[in-house]
């Protein structure tokens, strides 16, 4: 059974040649100032999954960091947008189609994971409805062009921090393998009335004045614009998830506390939590200090009033 590229032709072009050219252009536009890409020894990335006209350029900053040496297997963790899931689900397909080439699934690894009894099976209908994994498939195929790789797509539901850690511990032995890479799919703040989220910091740092919910009667300060507050909000999360100086265990805890306090609409917060659950176990068992570095941040538009809306995109690389 093959999963069709259901969002091709809407979220990104269905023309393979055009898509390949766009991916090439975004990757070539990445010009880091203080480091050389790819990053030797990268093991994972965090990258956005919006339509390519919005987030294609931001995602390129994550994909450009990938060291493809020896990689045979790519886990892709994405959030569920369309159905309730109190756990994790794995695709039932054998292959994923993309306009730039097909990606076979790693059926042996999937069989081992399903044998734990902890993963649900994702129906084809649910699989094809979800975009959080699909939006990464063309980039994965492009970065690993000409290489014999297989993918393990896992949809992560609305789970607790403890359940994130549990699934992270299940996946940690796989992610520790030299031939395995992990892509974590997440957009950051979805701001505006249409997202039912108008959290706003009244003043820039170092002010510790708590955030408020903007409304028709509660307006932003004329000296601190909404898009600046959104950036502060997102960067607060990004700093908590930066390793070092924090440990993966502490970062996972502090990120959970941050989400409770701000309710920031980071749609991939649970896949991120699963990744940090895996990093925490590897940290404890292997004594390693993981590195997580953010390399790009963008917003789809600049919000100035309560009528505006935007989605934020952030990209990071992970090494351990």
UniProtKB/TrEMBL annotation:
Gene3D superfamilies hit by this protein: LigB-like (3.40.830.10)
Pfam families documented for this protein: Memo (PF01875)
InterPro entries: MEMO1_fam
Record PANTHER family: PROTEIN MEMO1
Family: Belongs to the MEMO1 family.
UniProt-recorded name of the protein: MEMO1 family protein
Species, as recorded: Laccaria amethystina LaAM-08-1
């Amino acid at each position: 059974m093959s999963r069709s590229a259901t969002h091709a032709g809407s979220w990104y072009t269905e023309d393979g040649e055009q898509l390949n050219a766009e991916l090439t252009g975004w990757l070539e536009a990445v010009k880091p100032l203080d480091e050389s890409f790819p990053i030797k020894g990268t093991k994972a990335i965090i990258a956005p999954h919006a339509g390519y006209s919005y987030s294609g350029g931001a995602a390129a900053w994550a994909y450009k960091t990938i060291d493809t040496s020896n990689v045979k297997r790519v886990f892709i963790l994405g959030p569920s947008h369309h159905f309730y899931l109190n756990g994790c689900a794995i695709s039932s397909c054998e292959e994923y189609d993309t306009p730039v080439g097909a990606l076979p699934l790693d059926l042996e690894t999937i069989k081992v994971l399903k044998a734990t009894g902890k993963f649900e099976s994702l129906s084809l209908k649910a699989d094809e409805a979800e975009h959080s994994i699909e939006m990464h498939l063309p980039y994965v195929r492009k970065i690993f062009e000409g290489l014999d790789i297989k993918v393990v797509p896992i949809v992560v539901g609305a789970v607790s921090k403890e359940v994130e850690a549990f699934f992270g511990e299940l996946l940690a032995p796989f992610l520790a393998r030299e031939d395995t890479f992990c892509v974590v799919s997440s957009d950051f703040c979805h701001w505006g009335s249409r997202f039912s989220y108008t959290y706003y910091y009244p003043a820039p740092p170092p002010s510790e004045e708590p955030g408020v919910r903007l409304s028709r009667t509660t307006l932003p300060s004329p000296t601190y614009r909404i898009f600046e507050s959104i950036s502060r909000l997102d960067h607060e999360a990004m700093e908590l998830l930066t390793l070092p100086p924090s440990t993966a265990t502490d970062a996972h805890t502090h990120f959970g506390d941050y989400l409770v306090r701000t309710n920031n609409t980071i749609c991939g917060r649970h896949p991120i939590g699963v990744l940090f659950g895996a990093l925490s176990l590897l940290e404890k068992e292997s004594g390693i200090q993981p590195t997580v570095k953010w390399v790009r941040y963008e917003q789809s538009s600049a919000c100035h009033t309560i009528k505006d809306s935007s989605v934020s995109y952030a990209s990071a690389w992970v090494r351990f």
